[in-house]
Amino acid sequence: MAINNFSLKIYKTFKVIFTLVLVLNFYSIHFASTGQKKKEEMPISEHYKISMATSRIIVDGILDEKAWHDAAIIKLPFEWRPGDNIPAPVDTDCLVVYDKNYFYVGFRCFDPDPSKIRAHLMDHDAIDTLIQDDHVVVMVDTFNDERRGFQFRVNPLGVQADANFSEMEGYEDFSWDAIWSSAGKITEWGYSIEVAIPFNQLRFPHSVELQTWGFSAERSYPRNVRHRVISHRRDRNVACILCQVNKITGFRGVTPGYNLEFDPTLTGNRTDEREIFPGGNMESGKEKAEPGLTVRWGITPNLILNATVNPDFSQVEADVAQLEINTRFALHYPEKRPFFLEGADFFLTPFEAVFTRTVADPTGGVKLTGKIGKNAVGFFGTYDRINNLIFPSNQGSKSTSINQNVVSGVLRYRRDVGQSSAVGFIYTGRAGEDYYNHVAGFDGFFRLSKTKTLNMQYLHSETDYPEEVSLIFGQKLKSIKGDALFVALQHQGRNWSYGFGYRDITPEFRADHGYIPRVDLHQFEGSIAPVFWGKKGDWYNMLSFGIGGEAVYDHDRNLTDQRIHLQGYYLGPLQSTVVFNLNRIKQLYGGKSYDLNQAVLFSELKPVGGLCFSLTGQYGDGVDYNNFRKAGTLYLMPFMEINLGRHINFNLRHSYERLGLKREEIYQADLSQVCLIYNFSVRTFVRAIIQYLDVSRNPELYIFPVKEKTKTFFTQFLFSYKLNPQTVFFIGYSDNYLGMTGIDIIQTDRTFFVKLGYAWTR
């Protein structure tokens, strides 16, 4: 397809944006050179000296021990959102102390009306629910290198959430789990929190010298708006977070002990199946018992070795269901398995070269992650019984699973450069009978100023598929080689946000250990948006309006995708969020070019504690990928979460999708998921999950035979007891149902399962 008038519009848009960026860069440099006095007057985050505990501390939520009386007190005087470093609306004291085994943090959170404190029981790391509650946050940068932090959150009832934070990738991963203690108590003056974090759950330099850590204490105070109160200033004209935190010093002689953790597991299950559908009987399956063991050893306080034998990689929580009816590319599901979550941020790169859910059913694995001086290293290897493959292209992707043993490995190295930049190398490899895939490359993250970053990566791949697989999925019968390149410049300041990116992936690039479902592209993208901040009492907290665009060409220079979008972003009272996009799109598919207009909406409201509503929607033109034609599309996904008292959590998610021609409906799909949880305590809950899919199609509008009706039904019931994330007891039941045209919905299988896990640490 030749470059047309719409391409010219894209080009002119990029030219205007680029000119604006040059002007903004000029002014930013000008003000940087003429505003030194202002810069020098900016207060530096305070440093605090902490000391050894003067008494034993019992973690019960009551700060009554002598050690707390003698502890260092860190005030939280600033509100950084929605206010801009204005005085905090409530008083908060953070107390910090340590002994030879634990790092202790306490909070006194004063409240003018404790009856309005929002606090509910929930599971560990139920972060979407937790952030609706009052809670406190601790982040420690144990290497004091302003690149990586450990984050711990606790609500007034002692409910925990923990995460890794990576500055360079802007990555906050709540799938990481540590074993630590917390307790909370609501009082007549507010609430108090106690936290004890074992040193053997952290990584830090091995040194006999006095250590200094980066430290941030934060309190979330949700009322009409969510006030975020913090112990240090957060400058909106500085893009990095860890470079602005407090410093605490005084650690001396701390060690992780033996830093050993043994996690034996025993999993039992039985699956009954209806072998002849729909008229056959349900046949009882065999009872299976699978023992497993995972070992974690801190070779040094900052270098961790994990090994697992016959690991239990079963999931006790169903993935959130996604519609997969009119899609082009493979769906993405998050990782939830503990072995892969340890040190997961070490393997992050601009391209998702490592996607651990490609490892399906390993018999064993080993992992080494850590940091030595300025050098971060990560390695893991597994022996898998299943080979999961994605076959990408510019127009779509296909996938398959092969019952084939494969050996896979990932090696990652990254070195800190300067104050807050880094360069790195990555290798991923998988090999089996008549099959291999090797990917290697380098990457870099460079902080050019307080607001500007440059990110880049180059990868090279070499792949050879088994002959049968190549024939079935249209791959070449010989080894193939490919390359991928990514470059992005980003500015994130107080009043302006803009960025540019370029992505080049050749047709034969494959990353079988990662998630790159689209190849054969040259992609250019850019956006710019001014940002407006409200003041106390305004009808908005933040407003932003922007313009952006992208153009994608394949390697035959055909224009395959173009998009110009106008975006509005609003944050306001009642913790309300509205994001609105108007898109003008040109898309090439199946040899045809389609001009599309779309409106996209996301809105969210959290009017009171324990209540959340959101709506995601899309309306306008779409492409019927099954039948190669333009069609009208409507997509709606409402979501509701309600907490009834402190114990009951109910959430409902529904997806509605309709594709049609002028007055005729091609298909309509309804996908519902209901989750009901009763929390007995912070450790114990029972949960029921129900997923229901109902798809109606018009066979006369399809170019191939389809079922007029398809229905599926999935249920899962679980009892869970967690002493900590690894010491667990689960017992549950799940089943699946299927119905089609002329066949009522009938149960196809059912599974009973039980799991015991225990964490032994020293």
Question: Would you give an account of this structure?
Answer:
This protein has a 24-stranded antiparallel beta barrel. Strands 1, 3, 4, 7, 8, 9, 10, 13, 14 and 15 form a ten-stranded mixed β-sheet that branches. With 762 residues, it is mainly beta. Helices cover 7% and strands 55% of the residues. The termini are far apart. Residues 13-42 have low confidence and may be disordered.
What radius of gyration results from the CA coordinates?
27 Å
Structural class call reads mainly beta
Distance between the termini: 65 Å
Major β-sheet annotation: 24 strands, antiparallel, barrel
Tertiary shape = globular
- State the helical fraction: under 10%
